[in-house]
């Protein structure tokens, strides 16, 4: 194998979380842009959000890190993992679920008003 192929294989085998992030981002973005169905757009948005959450968690990983509680009998020893990214992701999950609920409620109202979930059809009927 060439040096470039070896480095690509090494990158994919050691940084698989980042490869997963890129795949989820691409799939979610494609679903939001390409699909005319409003529910599929919401699913794409949730995939995109999940990729961002995974990115934050993967960036916060500290190899050999311990909990950020300093023992009373001794000083700080070693590397500690920051709890801040987990807190931010937990808050973002709550916001994402709320956003999904509101979006689905709006989609139910659009379906009741227009009888379809197709974005182009709703635009045509609304502009008439």
TrEMBL record:
Keywords from the named record: Membrane, Transmembrane, Transmembrane helix
Membrane topology: Multi-pass membrane protein
UniProt-listed InterPro entries: CPA3_antiporter_subunitC, NUOK/Mnh_C1-like
Transmembrane segments: 16-35, 42-62, 87-108
Matches recorded under Pfam families: Oxidored_q2 (PF00420)
Name used for this protein in its record: Cation:proton antiporter
Subcellular location(s) of the protein: Membrane
Highest taxon, organism lineage: Archaea
Recorded GO CC terms: membrane
């Amino acid at each position: 194998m060439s040096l470039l192929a070896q480095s690509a294989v090494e990158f994919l085998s050691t940084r698989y979380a980042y490869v997963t992030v890129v795949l989820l981002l691409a799939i979610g973005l494609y679903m939001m842009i390409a699909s005319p169905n409003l529910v599929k757009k919401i699913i794409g948005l949730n995939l995109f959000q999940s990729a961002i959450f995974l990115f934050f968690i993967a960036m916060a990983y500290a190899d050999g890190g311990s909990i950020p509680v300093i023992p009373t009998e001794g000083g700080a020893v070693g590397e500690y993992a920051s709890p801040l990214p987990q807190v931010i992701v937990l808050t973002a999950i709550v916001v994402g679920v709320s956003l999904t609920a509101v979006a689905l409620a709006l989609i139910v109202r659009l379906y009741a008003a227009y009888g379809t979930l197709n974005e182009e059809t709703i635009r045509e009927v609304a502009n008439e």
